[in-house]
Amino acid sequence: MNQMLRVGAVIKPHGIRGEIKVWPTTDDPYRFDELSEIILVKGSSEKRIGISSVKHFKNIVILGLSGIDTVESAEALRGADLYVDREHAAPLSEGEYYIGDIIGMDVQDEEAHHLGTISDVIDTAANDVYVVKLAGRRDLLIPAIKQCIVNVDVENNLMTVRLLDGLMDL
Fold this sequence. Notes:
Oligomer: single chain
Number of helices: 2
Number of domains: 2
CATH topology of the largest domain: Elongation Factor Tu (Ef-tu), domain 3
Number of strands: 12
Helix content: under 10%
Shape: elongated
Strand content: over 45%
Largest sheet: 6 strands, antiparallel, barrel
Order of helices and strands: EEEEEHEHEEEEEE
């Protein structure tokens, strides 16, 4: 289980005072309003930094960060990922999971046959779709709907799925 959860990615600087434009990877971009700090990760570098201001523009979040006060220092953050510690993560409802906990999860069918590992989660208008890497075969796309997802066991890193007709020929 990941102890840090990704909440955004730095797109580019905004203005000349060191603010950055962030693409939120969280369901609620207004959650940035409640954060006092974030963890910036770029390459192998990881740094905790305070949030000094938050603005919202359409689907983008504009952040001011402590100690980042020039366009040049903001430019150095381009491409960085933003994380929060798990204890600062937004609470989940029953049946909801953090994408960071789903990626890398083993997938089995209802007869306990190992199918593969989740390599990605695609956000669609209707529902998420789990991309399952199959050994030596094409990827399997499983819609995140009650009819397909039988059980998600985050503690044991295991998802049990029901393969509806047409999803995969075993």
